[in-house]
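We read letters as residues; the fold follows as tokens. Both lines appear below.
***
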Amino acid sequence: MSRTFLRLSLPLLSLLCLIPLTPASAEEPPLRDPANLSLRNEVRLAIDKGLAYLKKEQNADGSWGGKDPLHAAITALPLMAFHGEPQGAYRGNDTPEFMRKGYAFLRTLAKPDGGIYNEDFECVNTAIAMMALMGPNDPQDGQLLAKANQFLIKMQNANGAVASFDGGFSYGPGMENRQWGDLHNTVCALEALRTYEALERPGSDKLNWDAAIGFINRCQNLSSHNKEAWVSDDAENKGGYVYSPMSSTAGDKEVPGRHRRVLLSYGSMTYAGVLCLVYSGVDSTDPRIAAALDWTAKNYSVEENPRLGKQGLYLYYNLMANALATANVDAFTLPDGRKVNWAKDLAVKLISLQKNDGTWVNDNSRWLENDPTLVTSYALVALDMISRRL
């Protein structure tokens, strides 16, 4: 299996805010198209307004949000948004004091087992906290990050009661009935592990990557690589991804002549699947990536999370921007023959959805997307990536 990278999350909450494997510290590149100058300026203004809101909402102890089991990620996400600001205003040797307080708060959540979390959701919190702390790459975090890396590696499922979950990741041992694996936790973990490896940290590449790829395959509607009984190559689902080898948040359907209902592919997890393949070293020409991108082209939308409507909409936007930027996709050709530039489409849509106070919020509250800190962070990290594609 090739380890060559392409150019370089849902019970209760999907806490995923990803950044590409290309260095977050890279300065904003020149415009790809001079006609995008006005749009890039609008994106910068939207980012500045969103960051101003987040700075105002920081708690006195350096954290963001409330004191709940998801608190590590709720603090990590704004830090990632500030660090990723395209013009580098919050990067470099002179990190602003409010950001230093945020990083210091994350360090207080490090546990003896190596995880970075409050009480529960150990995997997703640790992974996103790692991503935040790896932004400034402070030498004082070396041991903390090494332990967190090992914590995530040990969370990979192996020889479980349900073989379909082997190779994947769950929310963690603190959750009830965690003999489980899902694509959301898996993409969180794989991104943190690959980013840690890219920093050339010792002992980083110890994951069973072949097992991880096996799990990722078992979440895709693609019979050539997935032998689960529910898989279908029908035009509606082929190439798309589901939440886990046992369930789809989009539901399932009965197909004549099949003894098992087909799990339905949907938007956010299909982009998560593309990212998982990239992080696992799958080559850009691989049929699994081609099939997933074909599904996203057929179901292209910046209006909704395909198959879920407004549910998880901002997570979808975040994953869409990350997956397409990481896979170096510039445009889609839609079924009607139209060619669309996803970065321009998504930039315009996000700008139109920003509120006067600088926030974004989803009217659909599922997975806490009515929380302006969470959703604003999702949108800002997406815009950070979009700005570099214009």
